[in-house]
Amino acid sequence: MTTPSLDTEYADLTPLQVRIATHQHHSEYPDDPVAEVLAALGLTGTEDLADIGCGDARFLAHLRETGHTGRLVGVDASLTMVAAAAAVAGVTALHGEARNLPLRDGEVDVCTARHMLYHVADPLVALSEFRRITRPGGTIAVTVNHARTCHRTHQLVAAHASSYGLTPPDGMINHTVTSDTLPDMMQDIFGNTTIETHDNALVFDRPGPLIAFAEALFTFCGIAPDSPHRVQILADITSEIEQWFMTHPDQLWRDSKGYSIATATITG
């Protein structure tokens, strides 16, 4: 059995895509973090931009599709994600880690790091790298989740994993990186930071989407893709969720969430 890790989690596009779709379709209030990041950046469309931890590069694809003419670079530590980014027309895809980016000093006008800094063991080193690759006058935008985002569903999965002796793996999530701590980290590196906070929740009115979201959290709770317990854990979770909806017919399953966007301008 493989050990759950960021490598195993992001070797497959599906869990990430399920999580993104869940937030798109099951948020209590309209939730469009891409639009919020772009509003915070105020791009002209000509900037050279690097998206660190680009995932499947849908953010970069959106930029290109909406007329961005500047160079677009996607960097990810997962070869699967790099391949997905390389498949997007007009995107340069690079394999690399946030603590040692494969970009030259001052190579881009804008650096974005959306929902990835909590995957980095040394976030201040990563922020310093973001500063290094961004030209004077350029902009950094970093997005991280609130502490305990989607905690209810995480705890549900973790409890069932624990019943089979499985625990959340070390190193996948740096729990010190949250909306509470990001402002001070940004201030340490950049000295000038603007923070926007967005509060929301996931809400589910039926079992299916919640079950799919719960399964998309498996690796983070210690359940490897090839775990011999995976099928039974999914069956146990499915049973509990279906039972909850049966016994709470007039209620929604609600799970609080939120994120912050921190932006800074490179001076000097």
Automatic annotation (TrEMBL):
<dbReference type="Pfam" id="PF08241">
    <property type="entry name" value="Methyltransf_11"/>
</dbReference>
<protein>
    <submittedName>
        <fullName>Class I SAM-dependent methyltransferase</fullName>
    </submittedName>
</protein>
<keyword id="KW-0808">Transferase</keyword>
<dbReference type="InterPro" id="IPR029063">
    <property type="entry name" value="SAM-dependent_MTases_sf"/>
</dbReference>
<feature type="domain" description="Methyltransferase type 11">
    <location>
        <begin position="51"/>
        <end position="141"/>
    </location>
</feature>
<dbReference type="GO" id="GO:0032259">
    <property type="term" value="P:methylation"/>
</dbReference>
<dbReference type="GO" id="GO:0008757">
    <property type="term" value="F:S-adenosylmethionine-dependent methyltransferase activity"/>
</dbReference>
<dbReference type="InterPro" id="IPR013216">
    <property type="entry name" value="Methyltransf_11"/>
</dbReference>
<keyword id="KW-0489">Methyltransferase</keyword>
